[in-house]
Specification:
single chain, 260 residues, alpha/beta, 4-stranded parallel β-sheet, globular
Length: 260
């Protein structure tokens, strides 16, 4: 986010000052002329790829730990579920147009950063291929490294775009919130944000799984409303929160007084 945010601020500041996005100065973190490695996929990884291409990177490689998605729906991903299929986004398209190949490499894990001769800057990344197998009994996926698949990539700018895999279980345990072993989410009541532990609420990625920041904002607001309503009803069982509901506001009467 440091890379993307700085790039956007530089462009917008230049536009505000000069009325144009063109000829903007280099951002604090620039990919120009660098061999860029983006670790992680998803929307953030795609944005990093596209931004690095536009800034004039010498090369861009993208590592994804998971296998390459299928071109069509898998049997365990039927409609109306969101299709987990291979997609080419704008960042991938721009890299393909620039270098003639998709920058993504799937089933690869970064093992170690390699420093330059000064020992102060990154010069490369050691990687290893991985493969995923599914346990027939538990249906859980397990990852293992492929022996002899180690490879060194040249890199003098590394961007971390790794996704959210789940909340820290020790935090939930300390708060007394039970989490099933096969779940990466904090369980809450249906249609609510309260957990099984009194006074503990969950919202955003830890409740719904990896998602967009707009969902985190929305759920954070709804959780706040639920907490506000719970506090109000301690003294008045019929009380309702005046905080906004999802997609709107709750109107409330305002008593007006006239000062003569």
């Amino acid at each position: 986010m440091d890379f993307l945010g700085a790039s956007t601020r530089t462009l917008l500041d230049n536009a505000a000052e000069n009325g144009d996005l063109a000829d903007a100065p280099a951002p604090p973190i620039s990919a120009a002329g660098r061999h860029v490695v983006v670790i992680g996929g998803g929307d953030t990884g795609n944005d990093c790829i596209g931004t690095a291409v536009r800034q004039g990177a010498a090369s861009v490689a993208n590592f994804e730990l998971l296998p390459e998605p299928p071109r069509t729906r898998a049997p365990d991903n039927p409609w109306p579920q969101f299709p987990r299929i291979f997609r080419v986004d704008y960042g991938h398209e721009e890299a393909i147009a620039r270098w003639g190949a998709d920058p993504r490499t799937f089933c690869v894990s970064a093992k170690r950063f390699v420093a330059d001769e000064t020992g102060t800057r990154v010069a490369g990344i050691e990687t290893v291929r991985v493969e995923w197998t599914r346990d027939a009994e538990t249906q859980r996926w397990a990852m293992r490294e492929v022996p002899g698949s180690e490879k060194l990539y040249k890199a003098d700018l590394v961007l971390l775009a790794m996704g959210f895999v789940g909340p820290e279980r020790n935090v939930a345990a300390d708060l007394g919130v039970p989490m099933p072993d096969d779940s990466a989410r904090v369980p809450t009541a249906d249609g609510a944000y309260c957990t099984a532990a009194h006074g503990v609420y969950a919202a955003g990625d830890c409740r719904r799984g990896q998602s967009l920041v707009v969902w985190a904002i929305s759920e954070g607001r709804q959780a706040a409303r639920e907490i506000d309503q719970e506090l109000r009803r301690r003294d008045r069982p019929e009380a309702a929160s005046s905080l906004p509901i999802e997609g709107g506001v709750v109107p409330r009467a305002v008593e007006a007084s006239v000062i003569a």
